[in-house]
């Protein structure tokens, strides 16, 4: 308790008791715990994996010649310690530096952009991505979600997901600017609000959303139907579904892709399209009934 009061007083006075991350870890964790966190979170790696793909417990156990379960226990104990009040207070300057960095970038960062974080004495030479991975687990927010880091906590991300789905239900094919404008009206009591950066980074990393090269976004199903309709209008003739599939995927950014099943579901399930022969479809003129 005396140490807690002394160290928190020093932190409040702007004189933190530790100069870097490894000092903090060394004050609270055993050597074994530190080494496992270094391996698990890629603290010493030049190109660490993101949180959803970090090194497995089994591979660490194999390296250390212990069981996977033993590695899990040591990691659990280490993270539990770092989540307690005094370690949190001692990590606060590092945590705040990352929070400020993400805020300066508009409230969201991709994994590649984390590399621009100044890697000075504060991180003791550790990888910024690795340190941020660790903070997301033991000191959130920041929060890792679908390949990006944000200032939103888990509850806010859940609310944002629900609101984004509502926007895409109403506008299944939408431009990035229009979406950012609508998303900025979402009130989640986040410092700075839902910025265009947060909104568009979220969409760019949402696996269920299709990203178009022209900056638009589409929801599978109704959004794909609108794109298929545009392809038919431009072609002004019946098209084979494989041609439609190729044209659709040409419209998408790298990383987004539509399978033939989605296209056939739209062509066969919408009254706006009619099969004319084997594999060929046409767009029904407005007012024509089935």
Write the layout of secondary structure elements.
Blueprint lengths: L1 H11 L8 H8 L2 H11 L15 H8 L3 H15 L2 H6 L1 H13 L3 E3 H4 L13 H11 L4 E3 L2 E3 L3 H17 L2 E3 H8 L12 H10 L4 E2 L4 E3 L3 H14 L3 E2 H11 L8 H10 L3 E5 L2 E4 L7
Antiparallel strand pairs: 1-3, 2-3, 4-6, 5-6, 7-9, 8-9
Helix pairs in contact: 3-5, 4-5, 11-12, 13-15, 14-15
Write out key terms for the chains shown.
9 strands; 3-stranded antiparallel β-sheet; Arc Repressor Mutant, subunit A; 3 domains; 290 residues
Task: Give an overview in words.
There is one protein chain. This protein has 290 residues and is mainly α. The chain has three domains: 2-142, Winged helix-like DNA-binding domain superfamily/Winged helix DNA-binding domain (Arc Repressor Mutant, subunit A), CATH 1.10.10.10; 154-214; 220-283, Orthogonal Bundle (Arc Repressor Mutant, subunit A). Helix content is 54%, strand content 10%. The protein has a three-stranded antiparallel β-sheet, with helices on both faces. A three-stranded antiparallel β-sheet has the order 4-6-5. Strands 7-9-8 form a three-stranded antiparallel β-sheet. Helix 11 (176-183) crosses helix 12 (196-205) and helix 14 (241-251) packs across helix 15 (260-269). The longest helix has 17 residues, at 154-170.
């Amino acid at each position: 308790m005396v140490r807690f009061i002394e160290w928190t007083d020093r932190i409040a006075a702007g004189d933190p008791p530790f100069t870097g991350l490894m000092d903090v870890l060394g004050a609270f964790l055993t050597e074994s715990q530190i080494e496992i966190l270094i391996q698990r979170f890629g603290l010493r790696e030049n190109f660490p994996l993101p949180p959803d793909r970090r090194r497995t417990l089994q591979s660490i156990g194999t390296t250390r010649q212990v069981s996977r379960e033993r590695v899990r226990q040591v990691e659990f104990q280490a993270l539990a310690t770092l989540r307690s009040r005094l370690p949190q207070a001692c990590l606060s300057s590092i945590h705040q530096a990352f929070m400020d960095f993400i805020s300066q970038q508009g409230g969201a960062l991709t994994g590649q952009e984390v590399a621009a974080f100044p890697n000075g004495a504060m991180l003791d030479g550790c990888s910024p991505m690795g340190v941020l991975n660790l903070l997301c687990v033991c000191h959130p927010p920041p929060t890792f979600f679908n390949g990006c880091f944000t200032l939103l906590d888990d509850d806010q991300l859940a609310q944002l997901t629900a609101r984004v789905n509502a926007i895409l239900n109403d506008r299944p094919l939408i431009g990035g600017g229009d979406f950012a404008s609508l998303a900025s009206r979402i009130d989640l009591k986040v410092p700075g609000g839902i910025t265009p950066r947060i909104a568009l980074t979220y969409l760019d990393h949402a696996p269920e959303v299709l990203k178009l090269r022209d900056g638009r976004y589409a929801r599978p199903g109704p959004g794909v139907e609108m794109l298929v309709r545009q392809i038919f209008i431009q072609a002004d003739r019946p098209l084979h579904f494989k041609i439609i599939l190729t044209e659709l995927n040409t419209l998408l950014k790298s990383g987004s892709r539509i399978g033939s099943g989605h296209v056939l579901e739209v062509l066969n399930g919408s009254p706006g399209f009619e099969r004319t022969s084997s594999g060929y479809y046409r767009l029904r003129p407005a007012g024509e009934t089935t």
